[in-house]
Amino acid sequence: MSESVAQPASDASPDHQHRRLRVVRGQDGVDLAAAQRAVADLLTALGRDATSEHLADTPRRVAHAYAELLAPREFNLTTFPNEEGYDELVLARDIPVQSLCEHHLLPFQGVAHVGYLPGDRILGLSKLARVVELFARDLQVQERLTKQVAGWLQEHLAPKGVGVVIEAEHLCMSMRGVQARGSRTVTSALQGLLREDPRSRQEFFALSGVHA
Ligand SMILES: Nc1nc2c(ncn2[C@@H]2O[C@H](COP(=O)(O)OP(=O)(O)OP(=O)(O)O)[C@@H](O)[C@H]2O)c(=O)[nH]1
Ligand SMILES: [Zn+2]
Fold first, then answer.
1. Of 140, 142, 148, 191, which is the active-site residue?
2. Does the annotation count 16 as an active-site position?
3. Fewer CB within a 10 Å sphere, N or C end of the chain?
4. For residues 203 and 194, is the Cβ–Cβ distance under 8 A?
5. What is the pLDDT of residues 95-122, one digit of tens each?
6. Among candidate residues 19, 44, 68, the one where a domain is terminated
7. How far away, in angstroms, is 141 Cα from ligand 1 center?
8. Which residues span the domain enclosing 49?
9. Gyration radius of the chain's alpha carbons
10. Which residues are annotated as a binding site for Zn(2+)?
């Protein structure tokens, strides 16, 4: 992943002392032409006529679809000084999560609840969902995705604590294999006070709607 720092905000009045970090993750080595050839080979291997009118353009579509699913959108990580000394939890509930399981290349999807206890700075609210997408648009396992979101926020925001819960249904578990339709997997990652302080931890899970 590569990151670059954007221009500082031009409005330097105290109310607008925000800082921005441009967060960029490209398609990390996606070779579209090779992917297209591989999809054509897969169709042939599956006994399909990859040259038929219906399938002729499918390799191109699939290659582009995977490239898109593996490339999170760029965003500015905008933070503001915590001038009011806000010291309670900030929690964004029910952030949609869509990712691809690295074992079967099938989607898993659900919601994330992401919260933090502010330190010196607070975060633009939309950025919690942006960070989820940053790691979800990858080949993933849910546990790693959960930890990456928490670790990244801890590193870049330096809050007093951070917590992430993800609840997701894996199509590899519901459409095929065990076919446990409707089963959702819940994972969590906590850092700082949300991990160490029982009251904060309990409050985070309560606000997330998870009974711990
Ligand atoms: N821990 C974890 N496992 C996952 C995740 N996504 C998929 N899996 C599991 O990865 C495992 C891969 O196991 P294998 O036995 O190699 O694959 P399989 O033969 O297709 O297994 P079945 O799904 O049981 O048919 C399966 O149990 C999947 O349910 C995830 O995010 N986290
Ligand atoms: Zn899977």
1. 142
2. no
3. C
4. no
5. 999 999 999 999 999 999 999 999 999 9
6. 68
7. 9
8. 32-68
9. 20
10. 101, 104, 172
